[in-house]
Design goal:
globular; disordered N terminus; 23 helices; mainly alpha
Length: about 475
């Protein structure tokens, strides 16, 4: 089936929708694939920009509003908590009504939250609007990943889904770059932070129209018994018996919880993502605090430029290498290698005495922690859930895993500053190292290898045994 071959209305009425996606699986990368990758990835550009710019923003806001540690921690972490809710909600709805019907709504929520944040009159308003922003960010995870996964060929699926996520690299770089440019002016800090948070709406709104006009995934159409006409309108196929295919809100969660192989995959993907985000977001959002360990005499502009350098030299290449090797080394090998190297780098940051006083070794080790995070589990925890669940619960499963990841991020961002204030790098980086080695164990014991396999073959591997079906 070519990429553009979505079952049409008249053909669907004459015969059941074909479930043979061999031609789609064997297709090489086309311009349509790149288009889907770009419009899907722009949400992750915004995700990285919005979530990681807040560390710089809070450095500007604290002296203006005289915020306490609790308020600061809530500003840093509220969007992550809301992302968990957004991922669960949008993930389940996308399995119920289709990917395209919900696609684009999440970026509108995100854009509204970003613009509202820019006009916040006080710290608690900012916290509230960050929650709305987070719902939109979380909603983008399961839908964008699944759309790309369901369109991609099996030999390039890992790379294409990784590239969607790798758009974060542009957000990681643009955020500190824009902040540095604004900080170098004589503009008031109150105006600078408002521009920084408001800018997050721009890339989201830029792809809204393209998302709303994207064709529905042929895999979803076939599994849901739906058809799409030339105007993009969806309807139930004439041959489909809806009474045999419930789409209630709780059905998807029930299936994932009651089929043992799917449950193992769900726990593995969710636990790995939780542990990765706990270590990663704590380090990334708190990077101005981590870099402060090198010396308190550096200005905010100097710290921001240092952060920009680390992201450019270490993080961005990590995303690129991961995408290039995802379909060669495989998801499991990359995730295990990444978690292993994260354990080592975080452990070195924690245990080498006075490392923060040695600027070059500190920055190299801290930078490599970013490289192996982006190369490893930051990419693979996003790719895995887009492949390992059946099509009718794919965005639901991805949403649950992403939600657990964001809860891990919320935990890491909330706790990390307290660990830094308590025991410095020893406390914070030791916790990150422990989370990383646990992620390695989870990956080794609970997740399959998916490289080179069709989504249908991966789904068949998780099919319940006859005894399980009878019990259900």
């Amino acid at each position: 089936m070519p990429l553009s071959a979505v079952p049409n209305t008249r053909a669907a009425k004459a015969a059941p929708v074909s479930h043979d996606f061999t031609e789609m699986d064997n297709a090489s990368i086309s311009p349509q694939h790149w288009k889907i990758m770009f419009i899907s990835g722009m949400g992750f550009f915004t995700d990285a920009y919005d979530l990681f710019i807040i560390g710089i923003v809070m450095s500007l806001v604290k002296p203006i509003w005289h915020t306490g540690k609790i308020e600061e921690a809530l500003v840093d972490s509220t969007a992550l908590l809301a992302s968990a809710f957004g991922a669960l909600l949008f993930g389940r709805v996308a399995d119920m009504v289709g990917r395209k019907r919900i696609y684009g709504v999440e970026v509108l929520v995100l854009a509204f939250g970003a613009i509202a944040c820019a006009f916040s009159p006080g710290i608690w308003w900012l916290i509230g609007f960050r929650f709305i922003l987070g719902v939109g960010i979380g909603g983008d995870y399961p839908v964008s990943a699944t759309i790309m996964s369901e369109y991609a060929g099996k030999a390039s699926r890992g790379m294409l889904v990784s590239l969607v996520f790798a758009m974060q690299a542009a957000g990681l770089i643009l955020g500190p770059l824009l902040a540095s440019a604004l900080l170098a002016t004589n503009m008031s800090h109150d105006l600078i932070w408002r521009i920084l948070v408001g800018f997050g709406a721009v890339p989201a709104l830029a792809v809204y129209w393209s998302r709303r006009h994207l064709k529905e995934s042929p895999r979803y159409l076939a599994a849901a018994g739906m058809e799409e006409d030339e105007q993009g309108k969806l309807a139930t196929a004439s041959h489909w018996d809806k009474s045999k295919h419930s789409i209630s809100f709780w059905d998807g969660f029930h299936r994932l919880a009651t089929e043992s192989k799917l449950l193992t995959r769900l726990i593995g993907a969710s636990a790995a993502w939780f542990l990765m985000d706990a270590a990663y977001y704590g380090n990334t959002v708190s990077s101005p605090l981590v870099l402060s360990a090198m010396g308190s005499d550096h200005t905010l502009l100097q710290k921001t430029l240092t952060q920009l350098g680390i992201f450019t030299v270490f993080a961005a290449p990590g995303y690129a290498v991961s995408a290039l090797l995802m379909d060669r080394l495989g998801r499991k090998a990359i995730q295990m290698l990444g978690f292993g190297m994260m354990t080592i780098t975080f452990g070195l940051l924690a245990l080498i005495p006075n490392l923060e006083k040695m600027a070059v070794p500190f920055l190299i080790i801290y930078g490599f922690s970013f490289f192996f995070t982006e190369f490893g589990p930051n990419a693979t925890t996003f790719v895995y859930p887009s492949e390992i669940f059946p099509v009718r619960v794919r965005t639901t499963g991805h949403g649950i895993a992403a939600a657990m990841g964001k809860l891990g991020g919320f935990f890491g961002v909330f706790v990390f500053p307290f660990l830094l204030h308590w025991k410095g790098l020893l406390g914070a980086e030791s916790a990150a190292a422990i989370a990383s080695i646990l992620g390695l164990v989870v990956t080794a014991t609970m997740l399959p290898e998916t490289k080179g396999k069709s989504l249908e073959a991966i789904e068949a591997e998780a099919a319940p045994e006859p005894a399980e079906e009878l019990a259900a």
